[in-house]
Amino acid sequence: MTTPDETLPAAAPCPICGKPAAAAFKPFCSKRCADVDLQRWLSGRYAIPGREDDALSQEDEPSDD
Ligand SMILES: [Zn+2]
């Protein structure tokens, strides 16, 4: 069964902060939120076969906690 859904929102909200997602960072609104999601994956020890990150040495997260 396939139901063509034409009611898809133009911009789904960012799953991290709820802001409208940006096309360049879908489904996130920014690289920051994409990083947040990535961190969650890493911290959760999820293994992604076939993926190698060798440029994760930059920190652009100001600690506002
Ligand atoms: Zn966001």
List the helices and strands and how they pair.
Layout: H1 31-43
The structure holds zinc ion.
Structural commentary:
Interacts with GyrB. Belongs to the DNA gyrase inhibitor YacG family. Keywords: Metal-binding, Zinc. InterPro entries: DNA_gyrase_inhibitor_YacG (IPR005584), Znf_NHR/GATA (IPR013088). The chain has 65 residues and is mainly α. The radius of gyration is 15 Å and the shape is extended. The termini are far apart. The protein is built from one helix and no strands. The protein has a domain at 12-44. The chain has one helix at residues 31-43. Zinc ion is lined by residues 14, 16-17, 19, 28-30, 33.
Summarize the structure.
The chain has 65 residues and is mainly alpha-helical.
Number of strands: 0
The ordered string of helix (H) and strand (E) elements is H
The separation of the N and C termini measures 47 Å
Query: Structural class, judged by helices and strands?
Result: mainly alpha
Give a list of the ligands: zinc ion
Task: Identify the overall geometry.
Answer: extended
List keywords for this structure.
65 residues, mainly alpha, 1 helix, extended, binds zinc ion
